TrEMBL record:
GO process annotations (BP): DNA transposition
Protein name: Transposase IS4-like domain-containing protein
Coiled-coil regions, chain positions: none
InterPro entries: Transposase_11, Transposase_11-like
Organism: Candidatus Tisiphia endosymbiont of Sergentomyia squamirostris
C-alpha cells in the first residue's frame, strides 16, 4: 500500500504485509494469501512483534469460536432461517463476554479479600 494514500492519517506509523502460505496436506497443493496490517505502533515495534500481535489476534478469534462450539454446540445448530443464525451467534458471543467479565470481577474481589 503506497504511503501517498495515507495523507491526513497522522496516527498511522507502520504498514506491514503478511504473506501466509498454507499446504493442503491431502492434496499437496499450496495456497497463498497476502494481508496488510496498519498500526499506530512506532518503528520500535519490530516485524517479529507485529507478526506476534497478528497471531495473538487470530488466536483470540479461534478461541472464541472453539468456546461457542464446545459450550453452545454452535456447529450442530440446525437453525437456518433468515437472520436467526447471525442473531444467535451474536447472543452466544455476548453471553461469553458477560461470563468472562463476571469471572474477572470475582477473581479480582477474591484477590483483595
Amino acid at each position: 500500500m503506497p504511503w501517498e494514500y495515507l495523507n491526513g492519517h497522522r496516527h498511522i506509523k507502520q504498514l506491514c504485509r503478511i504473506t501466509r502460505r498454507r499446504e493442503q496436506k491431502n492434496k499437496g497443493n499450496y495456497t497463498e494469501e497476502t494481508a496488510y496490517m496498519i498500526t499506530s505502533l512506532s518503528s520500535s515495534a519490530s516485524a517479529e512483534m507485529l507478526l506476534d500481535l497478528n497471531r495473538k489476534h487470530w488466536s483470540c478469534e479461534n478461541n472464541l469460536n472453539w468456546v461457542k462450539d464446545r459450550v453452545f454446540m454452535e456447529d450442530k445448530s440446525t437453525i437456518r432461517k433468515d437472520n436467526a443464525p447471525i442473531v444467535l451467534s451474536l447472543l452466544r458471543s455476548f453471553v461469553i463476554s458477560i461470563i468472562a467479565t463476571i469471572s474477572t470481577k470475582i477473581g479480582s474481589v477474591q484477590k483483595t479479600v
